[in-house]
Amino acid sequence: MTEKGLTHAIEVKRKKRGSIIQELKKMQVSIQEAQSKREIQDKYKVWIGLYESFLDEHDELTKLLDKEEKHQDYWKNFEPTERALKEFKEQTEDSLNEDPVQRVSIDPNDSVSQAVSRKSSRRSSGGQSALSDAKLNEIQKQADLNAEMAAIEEREAIERAKLDLKNREARLELRTKLEASEAKQRAIEEVLSSQSQVSIAQPYQPGVNVDANLFMPTLSQLPATTTPERLLATTCR
């Protein structure tokens, strides 16, 4: 199914479920306005059928939703409606069970078959109610399991995020150390290069001992015409 087709199918199911909810509300008003217990029983049987349809439509809808959508739909739409319907169901059944004699009333003018038919109808209604409760319990159980699954997946996502952050911090620390080492290596290479250039600018002079003592001739070794001023000028050269 394409994404557009899936969206359309979900919208159809939502509208169908909403339509059934409106029918249930109308039937609830009709039951409350009923004048006799027999009328309540007959209308309640119709209401139970609608309740079953509501659960079926919800079940079909959830099959089209992903986990997150199921979680949101359950708590936002299904759970409040279902809680109100269940409350009405319990109140109605309590009202019907107030007088055990009236649960299977037999009109003297009725035939035996009519009385048995009403008794069977009541049993059928009770059976449908039990099935509704069982199905409702399964839906609630599925919702709890989906919520638990969503919580587990969220925790796993958080743990993955923490691990990823820890790895990123470790990579950043290593990258910082590597960059510092490279910068230090470049500085050493620059110093060595500078020293090499100075050595080339001042070539080695063979035959000159720069560490030898400065030769200073004595006056007895100089010509007679050499004056101290000439001697100083000769030495400075």
Describe the structure.
The chain is an all-alpha fold and 237 residues long. The chain has one domain. 80% of the residues lie in helices and 0% in strands. The chain has six helices and no strands. Helix 1 packs antiparallel against helix 2 and helix 3 packs antiparallel against helix 5.
Give a quick set of tags describing it:
single chain, 237 residues, mainly alpha, 80% helix, rod-shaped
Can you lay out the helices and strands and say which pair or pack?
Elements: H1 3-32, H2 37-62, H3 67-96, H4 100-103, H5 112-201, H6 228-236
Helix pairs in contact: 1-2, 2-3, 2-5, 3-5
Uncertain segments of ≥5 residues (pLDDT<50)?
100-123
Largest sheet: none
Tell me the helix content.
over 70%
Total count of domains: 1
Calculate the mean pLDDT score and round it. 76
The Rg value, from CA coordinates, equals: 51 Å
Determine the strand fraction and express it as a percent band. under 5%
How does the overall form come out from the CA principal axes?
A: rod-shaped
| Distance separating the two termini | 104 Å
> What structural category characterises the helix and strand content?
mainly alpha
The helix tally amounts to 6
Order of helices and strands: HHHHHH
| Total count of strands | 0
